[in-house]
Amino acid sequence: MNAQAPIRPEAPAPVGLLAELTHRCPLRCPYCSNPLELDRRSGELDTATWQRVLREAAGLGVLHVHLSGGEPTARNDIVEITKTCADLGLYSNLITSGVGGALDKLQALYDVGLDHVQLSVQGVDAANAEKIGGLKNAQPQKMTFAAKVVELGLPLTLNSVIHRGNIHEVAGFIDLAVKMGAKRLEVAHTQYYGWAYVNRAALMPNKAQVDESIRIVEAARERLKGQLVIDLVVPDYYAKYPKACAGGWGRKLMNVTPQGKVLPCHAAETIPGLEFWHVTDHSLGEIWRDSPAFTAYRGTDWMQEPCRSCDRREKDWGGCRCQALALAGDAAATDPACSLSPLHAKVRALAVEEAAETPPDYVYRTIGSNIRSPLKEGASS
Amino acid sequence: MNAIFPTPDATESERLLTGDEMEAALRDIGARRYHNLHPFHRLLHDGKLSKDQVRAWALNRYYYQAMIPVKDSAVLARMHDAELRRIWRQRIVDHDGDAPGDGGIERWLKLAEGVGFQRDYVLSTNGILSATKFAVEAYVHFVSERSLLEAIASSLTEMFSPTIISERVAGMLKNYDFITKETLAYFDKRLTQAPRDADFALDYVKKHATTPELQRQAMAALTFKCNVLWVQLDALYFAYVAPGMIPPDAWQPGVGLVAGADAPKPEAGPRRTVPGDTPRLPRGVRLRDDETRGKTVLLAPERTFDLDDNAVAVLKLVDGSRTVSQIADELGTIYAADPRAIEADICVMLDGLAEKRVLER
């Protein structure tokens, strides 16, 4: 062992790769997890580079690849990329809106060995869903797409991102999932990063609504045992402990952007001063192990109190760094979603306050928008 | 009623305690006398009580719940300060609610109904142990007759209740299949209400117990209240656990229940796997050797199952053509074990996977 080398926590083998193949998307959801500055088509990685990234990922121990975006089927080579996953034994998960070209490519994706489809649904009522997604006539396309997925015998998960504009539809989402023959349903309360942070006041539900949604899900889980698996993600701001963001920084997951930047989580770019490496400059293994962005918050050495001495430090790994930055002004602080954070009460009060006001209009996601990131403002304070 | 507070050292007991010392002394009373230490509660939380014993607890405790607003109204009536009354009246609102169907008493009724009682039977208070009634009524009399300081100090058992509540909820959910989270909704609210109430009462007591004598009175009041709670459990234990002497007129198992309260719950969820089934892994679920971590895993939508060796051995034979019996036979030969015993284990394992929708039969 080299005594000169700084002691760094060892990097466990990654299990998942989120491949953001493109930021292009026909939908304009106001809670999109993509960054505010979206990558343009001209800068996207080519097919061969993605295939190399997937090979390197498989070599590192990655098991699941989430083919995502934007809308991943907007890429002409989505079938080729999926086939590469199958050839490498990687489990391929298509995270799609089901609109645009998705339906046309589905049979070919099935044929090359796609493993699973996760379809987003913005609402149950078509008008509401299309208002949220910002695209007319999206709902019938999604229904047709879902029917085809089930008909082919592919496992289908519906993903519903929950906020005050559709929280009254939670029971409806459950019925819809059953009706469509989905095996899984994700009832995921909005996580307030990226576009969702900009739109937080328009999206934040109140505590009573959140509690009711949890009650509905718990009752349905019991009723539909063996028929539908329901995953519930509760909103951070009302939680007691934060989530282990991405299973802990640099522990399980990595995220490759359309242009090939590798991030520990999809919002990591909001943290100023982090240096991200690029798949065209380094191998994925080097990036995972050594890139400054991944080593910055891996393990527990970077932690401050109350995380540092907390029994839960290796359970939730201090929560989300991006949220710590946005809400506490310090990416190394305890995630204020944690009840042990000195800022927790303030954050909760903020949620209560915003949920009580009349919601402002959505700021829809668009490529080339001038929306300034409120996250970056928070950072300088 | 005249509980004697232990005074180990006469001179010490004449000294005025600081605020912190006073708080510590009060907490010490709870640490030694609060009813979470009672054997009946240990049985309750550890899942050692029968369904009827849990019912006896829920029924008798209703009487206490129902009298709490009566007690708090008596306290309220003695307060000459509007500011104080505004704070204290919140307790009555918490218990009675602002409208029918709301409040702590209602949630306790839900709990009693949840364990099988008819609502009207509970409301009638027939069947409540006399000892329960005596204890609860002694509490109401105490707050009416003693000083306001003692009345407020007697409420301080709330300082200790969050611990018992979390223990209770976790223990009961884990140990009794007839208890659901909805049934225990009462305690969700109390987790936040009790500390708020206790904080206020504790401040009040620390501020107003200004002489050693007043401090002793406050401590004696809290001791008295601990005893009010404790003797209720003594009575329950005596009547329904050991020696099991149910007094005349008190609730007898089977009385006041809704029809079918003791019928076995219909089997929820998917049907059980049987030896004749032909299991298979559907599309999107597959076994994979994970060379990096040196194990075999089951890959499924958005998750990875870590498998033990037995599960791997079974799943390698799950191919959509072998039946469970055939799989058991093959494994019985390989491991020189009784195939019928293996078969039962396989069924349980496959049930677990079917419930998660990663296996079909």
Structural account:
- The complex is a heterodimer of chains A (381) and B (361).
- Chain A has 381 residues and is α/β, with parallel strands linked by helices.
- Chain A has 14 helices and nine strands.
- In chain A, helix 12 crosses helix 14.
- The radius of gyration of chain A is 20 Å and the shape is globular.
- Chain B has 361 residues and is mostly helical.
- Chain B is 59% helix and 4% strand.
- Chain B has a three-stranded antiparallel β-sheet with strand order 1-2-3, with helices on one face.
- In chain B, strand 2 and strand 3 form a beta hairpin.
- In chain B, helix 6 packs across helix 11.
- The interface between A and B is medium-sized, with 28 and 24 residues.
Structural class from helices and strands of chain B? Answer: mainly alpha
Average the pLDDT over all residues of chain A and give the rounded result. Answer: 88
Beta-sheet strand percentage of chain B?
A: under 5%
Largest sheet of chain B: 3 strands, antiparallel
Instruction: Count up the helices of chain A.
Output: 14
Shape field of chain B:
elongated
Helix content of chain B: 55-70%
Query: How do the strands of the widest beta sheet of chain A line up side by side?
Result: 7-6-5-4-3-2-1-8-9
Contiguous uncertain segments of 5+ residues of chain B: 1-5
- Class per helix and strand makeup of chain A: alpha/beta
Number of strands of chain A: 9
H/E element order of chain A: EHEHEHEHHEHEHHHEEEHHHHH
Distance between the termini of chain B: 67 Å
**Helical element count of chain B?**
15
Beta strands of chain B, count = 3
Largest interface: A-B, 28 and 24 residues
